[in-house]
């Protein structure tokens, strides 16, 4: 062929060379050509764009070390490659490519060579190649004439032509070097595709292509091949980097893979196959967007660079309890073992898991010591290879980790007592391998050490300061001990928790869903399937004769099983199965008995033995959820939960079945966090449970079910949301609001509220009284009182019950008062508990109301006239109903056995409320809301919130003890737990005195303030100072600045100035100058009368000064003075040293509280101390060195009390 005959592609009409993803000529040739390039027909793919965003922001210049001095940028350059580093281009440029069957028309192609592939494109603007050739499958490079060379593989030959002999030589040298490097760096067990096996591979239809393509999802890329043969040869069409991809469902069998350059529309054979492809591609996206920082650090140790089980290179998964690094394929089988054997986490995606301690643990332990223990005796015939199949992996991993078949036996194996002793000794050293061997051979991770101060190995490790040992023990707290059971068949599926469970029969099934089923599913949407539950796998077939299942659900992947009420869907009885892959499967049956049997069998298949007690009762929802509770708030654990009616039962790994939570008795039920990280908070007296939304689908189902179960389920008293004392929350809310806002309201309970407002309020209270917050200005007291009366009147059985109503009315006619009261007490004892508690709460409230009858005009008789017909549900004609109520109010103390202490607290509460309302009226402000206060433990975070009812008599000490009791936090000797008032706007905080009443402080809190209970670290040092200090005075120089903005003058207050202060038992005095020294007193003589003077008991002293004032030192406090006219004055004081700050603050406390700074009662330290403690956490963590803190006032204002520590 002459050069004249070798026409360039630029001379060929554009219609002949339409851009496509495939090469040219497949349809024209009709058959393979072993000597030429098997290209595609351009006309078969007209209209299919090959991308090409001509956007400079997507381009980047190539490295200067390339053979070509300057290369045009490529659209995919500059995009992050996710988990894999971007492969640099070795050489790129224009080449003429030899067409198929020796055609004389040359086709100009943009060719790129990197370490893995040789690719060619229509132009240098295209994102996706027409063809790629794996460098590993290239056998040799040969010159074939003027400027031409061949790229020869085992089965194919590709011919190219350069512009000159020099350029041809450069290309051949670059290719030969790339091939040599590829042969040295990888064995490529499958010949051409590299050592990484695909996560999923198979045939798919691609819109615009006549024939199916072979698609492989490998790591973070999706590769397209013409067919399976070319897949094995390593000659493909193109690959898609999933760092710029997104997948979504299109219709029943189709889905779209979208990139900035084009949309790939695929179709699968079935809906199940489509779901599997979607899952694989979503995994590729996650891997592409992941970070390899943790992986690179862990791979720094040589054994960690290869899978601990099969030896595959660059494993990016790990078992955090076994402390081994594994590949993705082995990780899938590890999950099947269950969390009791292996806790699998990704090195690249589970970023929050990988703390510095855990990373260091893997560097110290990892695959080297791990395999020396777990794989000490693996026969060569049973060893895994990177290309081993799923069955072989499953059998090997079961034998290795569940049975411990290959482990190195410890010399103490079989002697439990000695193993436990050896473990307690090992955890106090740095010998992690010894600890691993002991635990793997049966030592008890929670065994008793014999030391009451450190009763467990974890406590011993903490005592010895062995943080890595502590991390290893925590991760293995729930790990099962390996046991070799010779009676079990070798071929079993080890992911089964209870392999004896089996069941089969016909079920009606709908297509799986990725969201909750909000709408009713009709019968027509169900398909009849033959279902088999065996070996921990629920398989469903087209019919009972089918051999291949349509799909399957592994029991180890089930996270929740739910049973909707009958007739929820087209089939009367249904149940839902939720999986880890965020899929929901709905099954239906006509028979209740058959449905119950299926539910029990499936539940037994995925529930571990420790949670079997949950199956003793029928349930509405059953499953596992991550949770935090008690003192273990640093890390979430996995617990098992079942919901039955309004009871939520839980089984936690560290203990037996917990006492069920009565959802209708919760003090709080709330959802915290954002939509991505939701936390369900359940607060019951003395315990708080945080359930985390790790998986959105099943968590949303649990959330709705728990909220529904916690709401009122009927009209009777026992079906309402209940408080601590079995009093309905509706009654609580109304009584508290009226006590606070309506005691002095004239005609309270006699006047009626607006009917429409009363009805709306009552409906909201009945629906979820716990979430209703009554506020003055939004609800009138008459509307609330009418809602309470209507609720009591509408009770189906009445407050005094139909059975006992006449007995109560008859008792009112007894003439002897003592006999009548005795009869009332007898009848009261016969009432159901909820009714009895409600009667006492209501009469106690009415007793308080009549105490203010001079103002509200509602004495005992008037209240009886109103409530008699309401409580006994009469028409008002029977006077005996009113007489019963009047007798109960008059004899309240005797009938309900109210002691003097309870009565005193009640009167103090009422007195405090009235005083505050009078003060609020005088100052033009009105306090509203009920006595519910949010208090934090140690720091302001969502998972440290506590919502508590604050009576008027509650002191700061009582509040502190209540919070610590709820969280089961023990108080040790010299632990000074205190309630702090924190003002975020002023960046200051004030420790409340232990005798200070909380309710007035609560009403005075602004929107920027809150209460927090934490340790007062400086108290010990202050008590020592006061013990050694003579007298109750303090004097000295301080920096002073006044805040005049509070006075409404709008004047600038200037900077800080030196002033002399004298503090004594009556006042704080400020002097501008000092004239001389008084020799007999040691105190300077002031030049004149004090410039300012304030009564010391009217001052509130806060630690901290807001940073925008630029205080001269870090040691300051804010002082607030409230005048008799309720006007506030505020100023700021700064000391030179920490010691001065401590001494001034201690003296303030001393003189304000008559020398009683801290209570001397031993009750504060007599409570039992739990094994684990929370410790002390700063309000805001300090940052920087001491010098930096001195320069930065922000550090001081973040946590001023921290500056007083260790002084």
UniProtKB/TrEMBL annotation:
GO terms for cellular component: cytoplasm. Residues 21-50 are annotated as: Disordered. Its main location: cytoplasm. SUPFAM superfamilies: ArfGap/RecO-like zinc finger, GTPase activation domain, GAP, PH domain-like. GO terms for molecular function: GTPase activator activity; phosphatidylinositol-3,4,5-trisphosphate binding; zinc ion binding. GO terms for biological process: signal transduction. Residues 929-1018 form the Ras-associating domain. Residues 715-896 form the Rho-GAP domain. The keyword Repeat applies. It is found in: Cytoplasm. Keywords: Cytoplasm, GTPase activation, Metal-binding, Phosphoprotein, Repeat, Zinc, Zinc-finger. Coiled coil: none annotated. InterPro entries: Arf-Rho-GAP_ANK-PH_domain, ARFGAP/RecO, ArfGAP_dom, ArfGAP_dom_sf, PH-like_dom_sf, PH_domain, RA_dom, Rho_GTPase_activation_prot. Residues 24-43 have a biased composition (Acidic residues). Residues 292-417 form the Arf-GAP domain. Residues 88-180, 197-286, 500-607, 1031-1153 form the PH domain. This is ArfGAP with RhoGAP domain, ankyrin repeat and PH domain 1. The gene is ARAP1.
């Amino acid at each position: 062929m002459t050069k004249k005959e070798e026409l360039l592609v630029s001379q060929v009409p554009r219609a002949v060379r339409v851009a496509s993803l495939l090469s040219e000529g497949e349809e024209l040739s009709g058959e393979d050509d072993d000597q030429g390039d098997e290209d595609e027909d351009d006309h078969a793919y007209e209209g299919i764009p090959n991308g090409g965003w001509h956007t400079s922001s997507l381009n980047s210049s190539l490295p200067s070390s390339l053979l070509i001095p300057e290369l045009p940028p490529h659209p995919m350059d500059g995009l992050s490659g996710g988990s894999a580093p971007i492969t640099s281009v070795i050489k790129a440029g224009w080449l003429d490519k030899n067409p198929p069957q020796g055609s004389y028309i040359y086709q100009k192609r943009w060719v790129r060579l990197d370490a893995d592939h040789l690719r060619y494109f229509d132009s240098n603007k295209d994102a996706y190649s027409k063809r790629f050739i794996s460098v590993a499958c290239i056998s040799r490079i040969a010159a074939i004439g003027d400027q031409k060379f061949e790229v020869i593989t085992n089965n194919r030959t590709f011919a190219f032509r350069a512009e000159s002999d020099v350029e041809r030589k450069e290309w051949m040298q670059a290719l030969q070097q790339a091939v040599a490097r590829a042969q040295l760096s990888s064995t490529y067990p499958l010949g051409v595709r590299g050592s990484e096996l695909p996560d999923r591979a198979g045939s798919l239809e691609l819109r615009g292509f006549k024939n199916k393509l072979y698609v492989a999802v490998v790591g973070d890329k999706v590769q397209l091949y013409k067919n399976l043969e070319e897949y094995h040869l390593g000659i493909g069409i193109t690959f898609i980097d999933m760092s710029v991809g997104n997948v979504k469902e299109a219709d029943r069998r189709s889905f779209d893979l979208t990139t900035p350059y084009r949309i790939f529309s695929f179709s699968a054979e079935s809906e199940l196959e489509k779901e599997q492809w979607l899952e694989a591609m979503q995994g590729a996206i996650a891997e592409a967007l992941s970070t390899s920082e943790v992986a690179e650090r862990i791979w720094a140790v040589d054994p960690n660079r290869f899978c601990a089980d099969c030896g595959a290179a660059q494993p990016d998964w790990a078992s955090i309890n076994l402390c081994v690094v594994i590949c993705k394929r082995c990780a899938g089988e590890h999950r099947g073992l269950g969390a009791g054997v292996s806790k699998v986490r990704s090195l690249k995606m589970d970023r929050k898991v990988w703390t510095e301690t855990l990373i260091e643990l893997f560097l110290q332990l990892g695959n080297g010591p791990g395999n020396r223990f777990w794989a000490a005796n693996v026969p060569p015939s049973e060893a895994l290879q990177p290309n081993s199949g799923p069955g072989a992996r499953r059998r090997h991993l079961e034998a290795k980790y569940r049975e411990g078949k290959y482990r190195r036996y410890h010399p103490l194996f079989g002697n439990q007592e000695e193993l436990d002793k050896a473990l307690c000794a090992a955890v106090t050293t740095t010998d992690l391998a010894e600890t691993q061997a002991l635990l793997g051979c049966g030592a008890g991770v929670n065994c008793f050490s014999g030391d009451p101060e450190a009763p467990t190995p974890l406590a011993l490790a903490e005592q010895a300061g062995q943080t890595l040992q502590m991390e290893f023990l925590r991760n293995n707290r729930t790990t099962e001990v390996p046991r070799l059971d010779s009676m079990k068949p070798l071929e079993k599926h080890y992911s089964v928790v209870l392999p004896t469970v089996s069941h089969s029969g016909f079920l009606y099934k709908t297509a799986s869903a990725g969201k909750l089923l909000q709408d009713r599913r009709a019968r027509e949407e169900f398909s009849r399937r033959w279902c088999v539950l065996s070996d921990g796998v629920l398989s469903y077939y087209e019919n009972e004769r089918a051999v291949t299942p349509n799909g399957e659900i592994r029991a180890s992947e089930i996270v929740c099983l739910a049973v909707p009420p009958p007739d929820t869907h087209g089939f009367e009885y249904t149940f839902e199965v939720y999986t880890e892959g965020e899929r929901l499967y709905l099954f239906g049956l006509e028979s209740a008995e058959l449905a119950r049997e299926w539910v029990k069998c499936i539940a037994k298949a995925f529930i571990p033995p420790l949670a079997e007690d949950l199956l003793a009762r029928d349930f509405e929802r059953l499953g596992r959820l991550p949770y935090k509770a008690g003192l273990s708030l640093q890390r979430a654990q996995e617990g098992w939960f079942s919901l039955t009616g309004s009871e939520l039962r839980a089984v936690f790994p560290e203990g037996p079945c917990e006492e069920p939570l009565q959802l209708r008795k919760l003090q709080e039920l709330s959802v915290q966090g954002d939509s991505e990280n939701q936390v369900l908070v359940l607060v019951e007296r003395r315990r708080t449970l945080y359930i985390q939304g790790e998986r959105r689908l099943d968590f949303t189902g649990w959330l709705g079910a728990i909220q529904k179960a916690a709401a009122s389920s009927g009209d009777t008293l026992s079906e309402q949301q209940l408080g601590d004392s079995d009093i309905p929350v509706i009654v609580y809310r109304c009584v508290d609001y009226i006590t606070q806002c309506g005691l002095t309201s004239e005609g309270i309970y006699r006047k009626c509220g607006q009917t429409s407002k009363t009805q709306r309020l009552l409906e909201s209270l009945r629906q979820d009284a716990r979430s209703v917050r009554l506020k003055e200005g939004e609800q009138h007291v008459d509307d609330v009182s009418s809602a309470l009366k209507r609720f009591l009147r509408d009770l189906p059985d009445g407050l005094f019950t139909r059975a006992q109503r006449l007995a109560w009315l008859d008792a009112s006619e007894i003439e002897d008062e003592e006999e009548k009261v005795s009869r009332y007490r007898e009848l009261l004892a016969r009432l159901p508990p909820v009714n009895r508690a409600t009667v006492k709460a209501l009469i106690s409230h009415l007793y308080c109301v009549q105490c203010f009858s001079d103002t509200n005009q509602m004495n005992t008789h008037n209240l009886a006239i109103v409530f008699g017909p309401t409580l006994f549900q009469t028409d008002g004609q029977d006077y005996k109903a009113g007489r019963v109520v009047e007798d109960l109010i008059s004899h309240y103390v005797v009938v309900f056995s109210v002691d003097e202490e309870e009565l005193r607290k009640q009167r103090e509460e009422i007195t405090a409320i009235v005083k505050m309302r009078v003060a609020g009226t005088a100052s033009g402000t009105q306090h509203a809301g009920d006595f519910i206060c949010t208090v934090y433990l140690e720091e302001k975070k969502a998972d440290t919130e506590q919502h508590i009812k604050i009576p008027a008599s509650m002191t700061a000490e009582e509040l502190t003890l209540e919070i610590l009791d709820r969280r089961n936090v023990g108080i040790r000797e010299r632990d000074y737990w205190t309630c702090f008032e924190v003002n975020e706007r002023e960046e200051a905080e004030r420790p409340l005195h232990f005798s200070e009443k909380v309710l007035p402080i609560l009403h005075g809190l602004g929107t920027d303030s809150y209460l927090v209970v934490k340790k007062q670290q400086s108290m010990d040092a202050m008590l020592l100072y006061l013990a050694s200090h003579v007298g109750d005075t303090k004097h000295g120089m301080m920096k002073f600045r006044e805040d005049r903005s509070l006075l409404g003058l709008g004047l600038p207050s200037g900077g800080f100035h030196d002033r002399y202060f004298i503090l004594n038992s009556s006042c704080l005095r400020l002097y501008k100058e000092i004239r001389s020294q008084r020799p007999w007193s040691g105190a300077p003589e002031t030049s004149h009368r004090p410039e300012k003077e304030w009564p010391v008991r009217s001052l509130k002293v806060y630690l901290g000064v807001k940073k925008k004032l630029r205080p001269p030192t870090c040691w300051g406090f804010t002082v607030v003075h409230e005048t008799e006219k309720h006007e506030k004055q505020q100023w700021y004081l700064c000391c030179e040293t920490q010691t001065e700050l401590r001494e001034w603050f201690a003296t303030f406390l001393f003189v304000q509280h008559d020398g009683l700074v801290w209570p001397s009662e031993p009750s504060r330290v007599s409570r039992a101390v739990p094994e684990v403690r929370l410790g002390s956490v700063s309000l805001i963590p300090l940052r920087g060195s001491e010098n930096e803190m001195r320069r930065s006032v922000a550090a001081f204002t973040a946590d001023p009390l921290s500056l007083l520590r260790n002084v």
